Amino acid sequence: MIVRGRNRKDAWWIPHAVLGLLSVYTLAPLLLLFFNAFKSNNDIVTAPVAPPKSLDFSYLKNAMVQIHFFQAMGVTFIITGCSLFLLVVISSLAAWVMVRLKSRFSSVLYLVFAASMLIPFQSLMYPLLNEFSSLGLKNMPGLVIMYSGFGMSMSVFLYHGFIKSVPQSLEEAATIDGANIFQMFFRVVFPLLKGTTVTVVILNGMWIWNDYLLPFLVIGNSDGVKTLTLELYFAKLTSGQYGNPWELIFPAVLVTILPILVAYVFLQKYIIAGVANGAVKG
Amino acid sequence: MKLVQKLFLFVCAGSVLLFAGCSGKKTAESSRGYDLYIFNTKGENAEAMKAAADAFGREKGIAVKVFSLGSGTNSDDTLRTEMSSKNKPAIFSVMNSQALVEWVEGKYAMDFSTAKNQDFKKLAGSIPSSLRLQQNGISYGVSYNVEGYGLIVDKNMLADLFGKDSVEPFIGAFITATYEEFEDTVHIIQAYIKSGTAGTVTLSGSTFTLAAQKMGLAKNLTGVFSVAGSEKWTYGDHLVNIAIDTIFPDSAAAKNTTKQELEEGKSSFTAYAKALDLMSQNATTPRGPDLINATINGYDQSVATFAAGKALFLQQGNWAYGNIEKANPGVVKTLTFLPVKMPFTQSDIHVQGLTVGHMNASIPVFVPNYYAINTKVSDKEKELAEEFLVWLNTSAEGQDFIINKMSFIPYNADPAKTSAGYSLGDSIISYMAAGKTITNAYAGAPVGWATENMGAYLMENYLNKKNWPDNAYDDIAGYAVSRWEEMANIN
Amino acid sequence: MCRLLLPVFAYGEFMNMYNKKRMIPLALPALILFVCVVVIPFAIGVVYSFTSWRGTYFAGGDYFWQSFVGFENYVRAFHTKRFIDSLIYTVKFTIVAVLVITFFSLFVSLLAFRLKRGTASFYRTVFFLPNLLGGLALGYIWQFIFEIIYSKILFGPHGLISIPALCNMTQNNTKALFALVLLFTWQMVGYMMIIFTIGLNNIPSDMIEAARIDGASNGQVFAHVTLPMLMPSFTIVLFLTLSKCFMLLDQNIALTDGNFGTRLLATQILRTTRDSAPPDYGLAQAQAVIFFILIAAVTLIQVSITTKREVEI
Predict the structure, then answer these.
(1) pTM
(2) ipTM for the predicted complex
(3) Which of A40, A172, A227, A280 counts the most CB atoms within 10 A of its CB?
(4) What CATH number is given for B149-366+436-488 in this structure?
(5) Domain holding C110: CATH number?
(6) pLDDT higher than threshold 60 for residue A187
């Protein structure tokens, strides 16, 4: 105890100094993003690092209009939400089954799931699209299914890793109390996996929100609504054959990442919730 | 357990559907919602194309679906996915004869001689041979438009350099000048920019005097050329194309070249290297790491540099008009093209009937993209596709869409009667009217030879170095030829 | 504690057998989805790698069995200089990046863990932000950082301190590797930090207390309690980092576009179809399969090593 106390007092500022420096380094590029969201194309191209001469919100407004921000955000939100919901439920269940049923099959399955994270997307892009097209699923529901399928491997992997830290005694206690399988899982095990669930939600949510290739291939050419990244992609179209409309891209990117940022800040507290340490006592 | 049972049933049903769908390619006559599907990968005209398609649709009483993608995007995969799906586009875009190969081999591209619509057959037959998309003599594509590139220059800048009355004479004299005169002019102007030493330039025998004091726009000049050093395609595609035009009459000939023809053409590549040396030495950024730095000399930056009046010439095409306008609207109205010159001698030229004079006075005008028709759609759709292309290219309404809404120069424009409506477009038309055009033979080079090989080689070995070794020209020419031979498997 | 164990074990076994039948259906939806979305397309893709597939048709016939070429695509892949070069470059990059990212994210997680909740959350958010950025904007910003801020303002000949090694990093094969490591570390630290934080949270504090009471120093606590208990997190972090580095694509294109020989493997596979007319999808598929086998082998070895060291409560 004396050892701990001494460490705490002397070096309290070290973590802050180090983390602070690293934070500045981390935030600097994002500051550039922020700066350039308020500049004209010419200013961005000739002086990317300079702060904007004035906080010209017209670029943000223009970007939001051009990418049909609220509509696209709604679409992206629905797709991401549905995919995440499916993902969380299905992969947590599967991981739990695999951890509890210690058989050759489940370890092989675990490795298969893990290995599938390594498959480069291009190698299955065409067969996948052909398959879904012939199933009539080359649309939004199909997109949700694809996301759930692709995110499954990482999510199962993550859940598998952390379910091992949930003591089996809890489940056994629940069974004794007369719970069926569903209640056992969702009322006892699942709440203890809050941290992992939040991780799964954040990590998958992020790439689904920012992903453009899958939406582009699946729903890109339909006249219907588009996701945020798709909208930006198509808004770039009319800027000419070469060159990029930076005065549209930077503000659009800024507004696109804001929702996830908000979600992340909000979900932060769940990351800290770990296994209830008091549950297992010797 | 009810939930589990329900889940199980759902899953079983799903699997059954899956296997059924996969095994039987039942193409149900589903309501697709359209009668004609156009896949357009020259998407700068997206809105105008949609409007044109809608106008056509209204006339015919059909629904037309247009899907557009920008030229810069990698549209190949999307197009291929669509081609393998149930709903294939009836009209799709093919960029050049190299891109055509897969569509002919896969039996997608329609041979125009098999077209049913007589007007369409006439249209296809009337395309001048230099603007055709063909393989083995069979025509597969209708041009979108023509584009051109050269040295873009602002007449107002010329006025401030040489005096207002000298502008038109200067332009005329420049076009007919020799490479040596061009080279001297560049050096003199560069010296003027750097140290203010006034002098006179001689072009086609006439002399033009630089203003004793730098005035107006000329004060902003920091170099003769604005070179987009990090954009490999500007020198790896467009600039080298001019050299290739002296070796082959068109891209089809380039595609079928023999080793001997290439070796004979090596001297043209040497001339190209000299021209590149001249241009990169007299750019706004000194040759070196900065020249290939994407944030100093990327496409957008090179356009901005030119638009701000820091450079006299920008080697680009009429597609840059929009970019220049966005950077500096005040400068676009007085732009014009001047030819890019290279030190060719008559012995370098292997194309029948082509002269050094013509090469020096012309700008490349070519077709950047073609409409092709898909054989694998229904006959009705093919008919509609043919009618659409006829309507677009021959009716007054269609031409209005092309010229005014899409801002394209129609391939079949009568140069005497057509006006593009903007400075660079009209400049191209004037070259077409005078017959001073060359083509885009480089499109027949092996896929990837131009940008990814030539461009990359130059960027990584030459443009980033201030001084070139003595054997630089030979090395560049040697690489161009040997790499082409390697990639085309003609050893 | 021990006196309760025996009956618990026996009971556990009984529960295991009892629930087995009921538990399997729960994993079915995952399996079916997975098979449909990943396994079937991949299997088809592998089959195609043995044919001369061109993306929209098969050279040699209407159906894929008419255009089998055996292992020809694989042989050709290994003879393609660009493929081998990108493979070597990817391996080099992965080794450096995995070490750097794992070290930094662990370091930062440990530092932040000792702080108050609010501050720790703040830092976690800050480090997480880079991961939100992707695509064009990211590429432009980082190109700018390396080509202007590093090369001119900070480390150039006229900058704050002249460090040639940090100038023009995108124009040189070796330097670009480190530039990519810098970029990717910047992006990934926050991501891995989450995983380490959860792992750290899952270490029962009474274990640490017990160790300290027994007289262990900070170093010993770390080496003998924290690290072993963090093994599950290491498994995950190493696996994710390994796979992400090996498969890196967008950032590679955004930063250097593969110039100066900086093409990573994923970029190479992507560009293969653009290197010839007609596009050689069969070759690209073969490369992708080789790619998959390589990385699967490496990561599975890694997973089995670190899993063996995991401690279960």
Answers:
(1) 0.85
(2) 0.80
(3) A227
(4) 3.40.190.10
(5) 1.10.3720.10
(6) yes
